[in-house]
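Researcher: Following up on the earlier apo prediction. This time include the ligand. It's nicotinamide-adenine-dinucleotide, with the SMILES given after the sequence.
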Amino acid sequence: MSFTTISVIGLGYIGLPTAAAFASRHKQVVGIDINSHAVDTINRGEIHIVEPELSSVVKAAVDGGYLRASTTPVTADAYLIAVPTPFKGEHEPDMTYVEAAAKSIAPVLTRGALVILESTSPVGATEQMADWLAAARPDLTFPQQAGEAADVNIAYCPERVLPGQVMVELIKNDRVIGGMTSVCSARASNLYKIFLEGECVVTNSRTAEMCKLTENSFRDVNIAFANELSLICAEQGINVWELIRLANRHPRVNILQPGPGVGGHCIAVDPWFIVAQNPQQARLIRTAREVNDYKPHWVLNQVKASIADCLTASGKRASEIKIACFGLAFKPNIDDLRESPAMEIAGDIAQWHSGQTLVVEPNIHQLPAALRSHASLVTTADALAQADVLVLLVDHNEFKAVESSQITQRYIVDTKGVWR
Ligand SMILES: NC(=O)c1ccc[n+]([C@@H]2O[C@H](COP(=O)([O-])OP(=O)(O)OC[C@H]3O[C@@H](n4cnc5c(N)ncnc54)[C@H](O)[C@@H]3O)[C@@H](O)[C@H]2O)c1
Ligand SMILES: CC(=O)N[C@@H]1[C@@H](OP(=O)(O)OP(=O)(O)OC[C@H]2O[C@@H](n3ccc(=O)[nH]c3=O)[C@H](O)[C@@H]2O)O[C@H](CO)[C@@H](O)[C@@H]1O
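Model: Understood. Below is the ligand-bound prediction.
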């Protein structure tokens, strides 16, 4: 059965580009979101998030009549669920958004529908989602009871696009297809082939769930290695950036870069899903999370030491010292502040420091509420002209473009090795 109508549930960083990609191939796409501001914005042909090349694709899709957004679920041939899966409490996966999304589409499901879970999820989540749908629709059969002959097909197909390059990677990346049966996998592959240039690699739903968690845990562990090296090098008086450059000249060594910590919606979150389900086995994965989560505290201590040096050398009072934090986003050249170590560090500095805290973040127009009363948003030029202590937290292109002649300060904490 082919796909004429497609519904994407959750129109955020993943759902909106996915909906726009299907619509750009002239499928009839209805995006569903509980956020009416997002829905209204999309229906005007505009976007509520920052992602290169997304806005023109959404505008063309909406203007062409292929994409519309709504707060009310509608019947479709295929449903893709891309709602948040954060953690709650002691790093337990919070599946309440997936549960709500599944329950919201259950009433409009029809025989022959395909439901795909794209949200990053713990192992077993797709089977759980199938149970929620089956409980809500006893008149339809699902793969658990009916196998290949089920009325509704279900698959887990994780998303692995890199924020900042979503519109390219969405099309080009290979995609893992974890159908609950082989029919589910075949149908899910056919759906993605509407826009996919990469390959569809078929497995079962549990392996596909674990594959997504594995990819991000692999990266987290490797970044933790780099962050641990940065602590060791500071102790030993060695430049960690030079050290890594040299070690990476070995044909089989490829160390990642240290930074202020690991942020974002994914790498700082997903490894915990493995730890939560496998507390005895996942020792390295847990330690990597702890190493990366410790890094912002270490940076804060470096900043405090720098301020102490500045106080001694300048004879100023602490309240007269101006600190400038460069960057709030969780990685370079994006506006996403979620789970950002830079935000955490800037927030802690602003709370703790009795003098002025200046913040430079070229990708936002207003400081987030948590910072607004303790810090001011300024330009790079103003921060460089006014501050006594510079704290570089994100390697945005704008900061990389600063000439060494523009930096007159002696007190610099550079977490990304940009102003070495
Ligand atoms: N952002 C990424 O880089 C990325 C990459 C790969 C996988 N993922 C995963 O994809 C999923 C979505 O992430 P995101 O970054 O797009 O999140 P997001 O917060 O940007 O977007 C999620 C959207 O879902 C909406 N929503 C919440 N509950 C809903 C419901 N019941 N019905 C309809 N809409 C609902 C929210 O209003 C929001 O607009 C998560 O599981 C995430 O881990 C994200
Ligand atoms: C396996 C993988 O690649 N997964 C990607 C990842 O996307 P992301 O944008 O979250 O990933 P990163 O760019 O790695 O950034 C994460 C944090 O790590 C910091 N960092 C990075 C490299 C480094 O050498 N040193 C660092 O310190 C960086 O500053 C930032 O805070 O998860 C998405 C959602 O699941 C995936 O879809 C996407 O494929």
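Model: The chain has two domains: 5-198, 240-414.
Researcher: Noted. I'll compare it with the apo version next.
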